[in-house]
Amino acid sequence: MNKFNKVLIIGALTLLCLETQAQFSLTGGLNLSRFSTNSTIEGYTPGSVKLGFYLGINKGFEITEMLSVDAGLLLNFKGEKYEYFSTEYLNLIYFDVPVVAKVHFNLLGIDSYVGLGPYLGIGIMSTYYDSNGRSYSLIVSNANESAYQRFDYGLASTAGIRFGRVGLNISYTHGLPNVNQGLFLTQKNRVFSLGVSYYL
User: Fold this and answer.
1) What is the pLDDT of residues 98-119, one digit of tens each?
2) What's the distance, Cα to Cα, between the start and end of the chain in Å?
3) What is d(CA 152, CA 94) in angstroms, rounded to the nearest whole number?
4) Residue 3 backbone phi and psi in degrees, to 5
5) Which domains, and CATH codes, for the chain?
């Protein structure tokens, strides 16, 4: 893990643990994930969008009336769906740690926001499901060329609205590294999410 990743995850977890006037929220929702793919394999067909989910906790820190910073810890199900002779799935499961700066504003009387910041993903499991429902574990490792690498990172963007203790949001994460350690295939995580938050 490089220095940037270490600083990001340590900083985010520190913010989550600090005893301040910040507000916790529980969050969860649906993921629409796929890879940005580049392949030198002749005849390779990229996959399509796979439905998954995420859940976790955020801690928001108010800096000014219009600006806040959220640090989160999310269990995120990513991957891709493949349509060859039948439907098959690749599931990649991460703990994601986003740190997002949010700008708040009033839109038609509704508390609204947009946000942007970095995220770090730590892979904990990768599994391939074939057309017969059989599963194959693809170890998440930095040492095995046939596996998916453990660390992902990139940019996280979000927009949402809040009604009292309940919030609705849409977000997008744009992975930067190639998470496939094979020699002939580049795969970078792309995830759209629709979520609900409950502010404690």
Assistant:
1) 999 999 999 888 999 999 999 9
2) 33
3) 9
4) -65, -40
5) 3-199 (2.40.160.20)
Q: Number of C-alpha atoms within 13 angstroms, CB side, residue 53?
A: 6
Characterize the bridge pairing of strands 185-199 and 23-39.
antiparallel
29 Cβ contact partners less than 8 Å away, ≥ 6 residues apart: 53, 54, 55, 169, 193, 194, 195, 196
pLDDT tens digits along 39-76? 777 767 788 999 999 999 999 888 888 999 999 999 99
Encode pLDDT of 19-29 as tens digits. Answer: 556 689 999 99
Tokens 């074939």, residue?
A: 130
Q: Which residues of 85-122 are buried (b: 16+ CB within 10 A; e: fewer)?
A: eeebbbbbbbebbbbbebebeeeeeeebbebebbbbbb
Q: Is 49 exposed, middle or buried (0-12, 13-18, 19+ CB in 10 A)?
A: middle
Residue written as tokens 């009604």?
Answer: 163
